[in-house]
Amino acid sequence: MLAIAGGKGGCGKTTTAIGLAHAMARNGDTPLVADADIEMPDVHVVADVPTEPGLRAIARGQSLETATHRTRLDGVSAAPAAGIDETDLPSALTRLRGWPGHAIVDCPAGAARDAAVPLRVADRTLLVTTQTRQCVLDTVKTAAMARSLGAPPIGVVFVCARGAPESPGAPFAARSAFECPLLGRVPPGPARPLTAGIVRSAYDRVAKKINKRNI
Q: Is there a contact between 15 and 46 (Cβ–Cβ < 8 Å)?
């Protein structure tokens, strides 16, 4: 199970979770994206699926097949967070281990208690950050928490905002600040970034690197 985590809201976590899942699907996988952000759920919006059923139904014993939604992205399914609470979330996420493909979990931003819940269940973490100094600093805290909870970072993805300059020092920053490799830069895209070929190609490259690590 791969957690998608970052230091700040709006850094591109949900887009990365779904973009990575779509890239894996193009490579023959059948990934599931689960929304563990109870306070600010967004997977159902980006994936364009109903809010229910989802993780609450899974926690109550409904089958993974009937409690998830097939998205318009071929091969990608989604499990929205609507109605789930922090008490039931761990059991719902644990059941996702029965999913036949990759289970990708979109985590709450930051390093607070709500972000810790999915990280305790996940195997590894993919960090997502913009290249702003504050977002990087906050994501460093998230990386430390992921390690302490047994889901060490596999790498980091830098999401570039439109108009923001690319940082030539990003690979060094990834190794020194996050203690993990840079797996990719996602270039600026349109309002719906996953419709852009350059954005999809960026996630294709990230997916290939993750697959090489057998995650």
A: yes
Query: Residue 7 belongs to what domain range?
Result: 2-212
Q: Residue 174 — pLDDT band, cuts 50, 70, 90?
A: low
CA gap 212, 57 in Å, rounded:
33
CA–CA distances in Å: residue 165 to residues 13, 50, 94, 187, 194: 20, 37, 40, 10, 21
Is there a contact between 15 and 159 (Cβ–Cβ < 8 Å)? yes
In the predicted structure, residue 161 carries a pLDDT above the cut 80: no
Q: What is the pLDDT of residue 106?
A: 98
Best CA proximity match to 99, nearest among 37, 29, 195, 183: 29
Q: So what's the pLDDT on residue 214?
A: 67
Query: What pLDDT shows up at residue 162?
Result: 65
* Phi and psi at residue 79, to the nearest 5°: -125, 100
User: How many residues are recorded in the chain?
Assistant: 215
Quote the number of domains for the chain: 1
Domain of 127, CATH number, reads 3.40.50.300
